[in-house]
Amino acid sequence: MASLLLAGRCEAARIKDIAFVEGVRPNQLVGYGLVVGLNGTGDKSSATYTMQSISNMLNRMGLKLDSNSIKVKNTASVLITAELPSFIKPGAKIDVLVSSIGDATSLQGGTLISTPLKGPDGSVYAVAQGAIALAGFSAGGQGANVSKNHQTAGKITDGALIEKEVPLNLAGRDDFFISLRSPDFTTAERMAAAINDSLKVDVAHAVDAGMVMVKVPEERRKGMVEYIASIETLDVKPDNVTKVVINERTGTVVIGENVRLSTVAISHGDISIEIKTQYYISQPPPLSLKGETVVVPVEKATVKEEKSRLILLPETVTLGEVVRALNLVGVTPRDLVAILQAIKAAGALQAELEII
Predict the structure, then answer these.
(1) What are the residue ranges of helices labelled H in the chain?
(2) How far, in Å, are 174, 209, 240, 283 from residue 177 at the CA level?
(3) Do residues 111 and 35 touch, judged by C-beta distance below 8 A?
(4) What does the alpha-carbon distance between residue 271 and residue 303 come to, in Å, rounded to a whole number?
(5) Sequence-ordered list of residues with C-beta below 8 angstroms from that of 122, at least 6 positions apart, any chain
(6) Each residue's pLDDT tens digit in the chain (356 positions)?
(7) Which CATH architecture group holds 11-22+169-236?
(8) How does DSSP assign 230-274, residue by residue?
(9) CATH 3.90.1150 residue ranges in the chain?
(10) Residue 355: which of 241, 256, 243 has the closest Cα?
């Protein structure tokens, strides 16, 4: 039987849950560094960039070495990625993700050497360093090896120290913009109306499906934090394009709100064909002077057709009622997917059909 999930009535959501103030967003940071202290699981000598990086690091420490003379297995080249939240101040710490870019087999037990993390503008916003934590392990030898989870990527909790803040000044502004996470004209208009009704002043209007502009009265410009906080907690009922999502592998059907059908008649039946081959053996009688055993194949074909039921659905019926009716008939998940596709092709399904 198909698994049916019916989306309930769409309730109101806070503005901060469906939208964000323009400019108030995380920023991506990335850096290149070295992980040391590995137990022979680091990059091999073929990773020349690792040897060059070790040589450069030691040269900065006063040791003049040629990269060609360096042969180590306890070091790996890695990329460090992190997200820099808005308004985070210097001295705060954030988590970083460390991923191998060479042929290291494991980062278990490794320590990341101090690595600057840069933003898209090339400026250094954080410095990462610390012991790497892997969500798994690897053990064994040449004859047998046991591993759990991924061994070439790990996380350092609070591993990066913020050195620079992303500049974003809201004080004194005469307006700001709220961006919707899922653009929709109806939702944008409802959001502007909710803000105006709450403040009793016409200060908000929808610019397009993804943005609402909010004016800041002169008396509120010195308290922007309080002004924005009073707006982002307002409730708005979001509206989206009606969808029917089907997982063909599992037979799961998820139906959005407001799905409707035009008048349609559905008839569905299966035909199964089974072919069997049996072998009959003919042997000569006992004590006969001549004769040989003969094997004769005999094929038998059977055709079975299930009874088809015709269902008439009026225009006022919802898709949820359609699926419940089909389940009562006894359709399989594969049959249900095929029927919904056919209804959509006939133009009777007033919703977007998405197959994942």
Answers:
(1) 15-18, 48-60, 185-199, 224-232, 319-329, 333-345
(2) 11, 13, 21, 93
(3) yes
(4) 7
(5) none
(6) 444 444 444 578 999 999 999 988 899 999 999 999 998 888 887 788 888 888 888 888 888 877 777 778 899 999 999 999 988 999 999 999 999 998 898 898 899 999 999 999 999 999 999 999 987 666 655 555 566 667 899 999 999 999 999 888 887 788 999 999 999 999 999 999 999 999 999 999 999 999 999 999 988 888 899 999 999 999 999 988 888 888 877 777 787 767 777 777 766 665 444 545 565 666 666 666 666 666 666 656 554 555 555 566 566 566 667 667 666 666 676 777 777 788 888 887 778 888 87
(7) Alpha-Beta Complex (3.90)
(8) HHHT-EE------EEEEETTTTEEEE-TT-EE-SEEEEE--EEEE
(9) 11-22+169-236
(10) 243
Task: Give the type of residue at 180.
Answer: L
